[in-house]
Amino acid sequence: MHMSDGIPTTERQIPQRDPVIDGIRGVAILLVVLGHSLQHHLTKFNSNIIFKAIYSFHMPLFIAVSGYLAFGRIEARLPTLARNKAAHLVIPFLAWHFITYLMSALHVGQLSNPLDWYFQLLVSPDNGLWFLWVLFLCFVVAGIVTHLPCRFRDSALLGSALLLYVANYQPGGLPLLRWLYPFFVAGYLYAKHAKQIRLCPQLPIAILSITLWALLVPFFSCGNPMPIETLLTGWGLSGGSWLGLLLRYVIAGAGVIALTSMFSVWVRWSPIAIPLWLTFVGAASMDIYVSHQLFTSQPEGLVGPQFVPIAFVIGLTGSLCLSFFVLRRVTWLRCIFLGMWK
Prior knowledge:
The protein is built from 16 helices and no strands. By secondary structure, it is mainly α.
């Protein structure tokens, strides 16, 4: 199996792929496209239960898969690791932001200062393809920790996740890194101890995690305080923000475990193989992620649930067509915009 990261597939020729990993990534990237379609075409998307369900765990899922695939790779020499991940992740992150800069200039009819544009990106990476930047940071931080002269490396990785919460620093995507890095570590540790973990009964774990996730999703809030935070604040009690954060981790963790356990049960007991179209979508998740938002706003200006499926189909097919008929066919475009250097 040779897959670079949770989203990107950075090799054109891959000798062997893991259909389970590609299937999980396929579900995750479909949820990403659907989530953005809901954002573009629903006025009150934050209260939509489908939106809540998607945003409760889909990016933690991607990061966890990234950590799983990182096992055996972040142990490489740090300069090599940083250079490779910068080429695969940071260059597309910066390149696509230049495309949005040009599109914004066309929209307003004038060019702004590109340095200001990129400065805002570095201060708040969520103005661009933030996942690529945060994933790069996850690799770098975990790579540094795994190279420390420490006998208890697993404990050091868990400790590094806690230390990120001590660092009270906002710019540069650190809040996103603090939120998602524990899932990267969890995926890495799962891969490291997979033989022991897989001895656990998968079906009860899947049922329990699905039940817990389904019960808690209605209480999830994206971008706003969790209900428990608002409740405790209204009572004049402290600690609401930490309880809200803990609840977010419980919901996201339950969702990640639910989906991955379902795939484990599927592979072990179902006579039906994982569909090829789903593994194809998973293998092309980088292609879809980087450009789907160019298309999900279509039909532009139209609001209503009836337009969400249309936007979803346009976003998925548009990004795949752009990648396979344009970007992948030109070497320099493939390198810069998809991070595929080989």
